[in-house]
Amino acid sequence: MGSRTVTACVLIIGNEILSGRTQDINLNHIALTLGAWGIRIREARVIPDIESTIINTLNEVRRTFDYVFTTGGIGPTHDDITADCIAAAFGVPIVVNADIAARITSRPAPEDIMTSRLRMARVPQGSTLIDNPTGGPQGFCIENVYVMAGIPMVMQAMLSTLEGKLEHGDVVRSRSVTVYVGESQIAAHLTDIQQAYPHIDLGSYPFFRDERYGTSLVMRGTVESELDEMLQRVIAAIVEVGSTPENISRG
Amino acid sequence: MGSRTVTACVLIIGNEILSGRTQDINLNHIALTLGAWGIRIREARVIPDIESTIINTLNEVRRTFDYVFTTGGIGPTHDDITADCIAAAFGVPIVVNADIAARITSRPAPEDIMTSRLRMARVPQGSTLIDNPTGGPQGFCIENVYVMAGIPMVMQAMLSTLEGKLEHGDVVRSRSVTVYVGESQIAAHLTDIQQAYPHIDLGSYPFFRDERYGTSLVMRGTVESELDEMLQRVIAAIVEVGSTPENISRG
Fold it and tell me: Considering CB atoms only, which of B18, B117, B220 is closest to A19?
C-alpha cells in the first residue's frame, strides 16, 4: 500500500445512459468514494448492453487497471446480461450462488416470478459476494472486478460495504480557489507554478455561473505541505493579476 | 443516409470528472441531441489529461465509430492539451488558425494575456472550425472528430451549429411506460415480447423514487408502427400481472 498508486476503471453498462434517457450519477459517487479511500479512477467507459462489447471491454480494462467497478445489468430481466458476460470474459461457468438464492427465496413469490428473481442469484464461478445493505440480492466480485447494481441507492449501499477491504495508495488531497477572471489572465503564472511542483496536478477549470465567467484552480497531490505551498503561490498570482481569491478550500 | 446506422463515441477529457470534483452533464446533452438527429452514441469514455492516453484512445475510437465528439481541454492554460494530442494522433502539425486568432485578437488584452489566449487558436493542420455562438474561440473538426469546449453552455452552443451538417441514419423513436411492480413480476412477459420484436430494444430500468420501487419499460426502435404494437403488448402484460400502466409516453 504506502505510496503506491492504485488505479481503477469504472464501467457503466446500460443503453439508457447512452441514449440520454438517464443521466448517470454513479461515476461521480464512485469517484468521490474511491478517491477518499486512496484509489484513483483513471478511466470510465459507458457501454451498451451488447454481449461482445461488455466481454471485450472488460477483458481489456481488467488487465490495465488494478480494479474495475461495474454498474448496471444485474437485475432479473432479459436485458440484464452483465453476470453472463463477466463469466464469459473470465472463461468460467455461471453458477447459482446459495447465499443470494437464500436471500431471494426468503421473500415468497409465485413460481414464475421466483424464476425471474432467481436470475439474480447467477454469478460467475469463483465469485465472492458484495453485500447489499438494502436487503436485495448481493453484487459479486471476481478477481479484481466488482459488479454492482445500477440503481444509485443500491449501488451506493453495495460500495459502502467495501470500505477498508480494498488495496489502496496514498489519498489524493486537494486545495482549490476560485477567481473571477478569464483563464488567460492567469495562464502564464499557472504554467510557472505547475512546473515548480511537478508532482501536483494543477487544474484550471473555467465555468459560467451567475452570469459570470470564472475559473476554479484545483491542486491535487498526496503531500499536504507541498499543496499548502502551491496554494500560497496560486493565491499570490491571483493577487498579482489584480483579482481576489475566493472560496479557498482544502479537501 | 436512409436506414443506415450512424454511430458515435463521446470522449470526455478531464481529470476533474474522474476525481469526482465535477459531475459530467455533457454526455447526456450530446446523447439527446445526436439521438434526435439520427446518430447513435455507442460508447463514451472519460479519460484524464494525459497525452498518451488521449492520443491512443482517440486513434482507437475514431477508427471504430463514424463520429467522435470530444469535450474539454481546449482552453488557454497549461493543462489544455487536447488540440496538441489530436494533432499528434492524426500525425499532422499544429497550426495557428487565422479565423480563431482574429476572433481572439478582436478583444484587446496585454501581451502576456494575449499570448495565453492565442493558444486557443492552435488547431491540427487540416481542421475546419465549429462555430461558437457564445462569441469565444471556435472548436474544430478534423476528419470524423469534433472537438468542443468542456463548459456545458459553450459545448451546447458549439454542438447546435452542427445541426443538419452530419451524416445520419433513421432517428430512433421510443415508447415508455412506468409500472410500480418489481421487475421480476413482469420479467417473463418482457422476455416473450422482446423475442417477438427483435428489431426493437426493450429496456427495463428499475428505480426507487418517492419511497417506492418501480420500473420504466422503454422501447427504442426506428419503426413507429412496431413501437406502437409493442407498447400495446407491454401495457397488456402490465394489466395481466394486476398492475397499472403509468406515464405512458412517446418520444
Answer: B220
Residue partners of B198: CB distance under 8 A and separation at least 6: none
pLDDT per residue over B147-206, tens digit each? 999 999 999 999 999 999 999 999 999 999 999 988 899 999 999 999 999 999 999 998
CA atoms within 13 Å, Cβ hemisphere of A96: 10
Query: pTM score > 0.90 for this model?
Result: yes
Using the Cβ of B181 and the Cβ atoms of chain A, whether some distance falls under 8 Å is answered with: no
Q: Is B130 helix (H, G, I), strand (E, B) or coil?
A: strand
* Strands B212-221 and B201-209, bridge-based pairing: antiparallel
Contacts of B206 in chain A (CB under 8 A): 75, 150-151
Min CA distance, A91 vs chain B (Å)?
24
Distances (CA, A) of B166 to B6, B8, B139, B160, B163: 10, 11, 16, 12, 7
Note whether A124 and A135 are within 8 A (CB): no
Cβ atoms of residues B29 and B155 within 8 Å: yes
Alpha carbon distance A218, A225 (integer Å): 15
DSSP annotation of B119: G
Amino acid of residue A73: G
All domains in chain A, ordered by first residue = 6-160 (3.40.980.10), 173-250 (3.30.70.260)
A41 — contact with chain B (CB < 8 Å)?
A: yes
